[in-house]
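Appendix B. One record, verbatim.
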Amino acid sequence: MEFILALDEPELTDGQRLQFTKRLLGELRDRDEVEKADRTQDPTPEAGSKGFATIIGSITALVKIKNIKAFLGF
């Protein structure tokens, strides 16, 4: 299963959301329940952007079905 975790706090700056996302991403990658975790790719990047655009404050985590209960307990 794929989970998208997004930080929805309008009072935070993009820099603060990015810092929070980096910390959470590190923690998710260390979890045995998580197969893969990365920043969420923007499906509609701005014209002229190079490479992959990500959504600030958003993480996508891939979790096997047998590990969902443990993951949600995180």
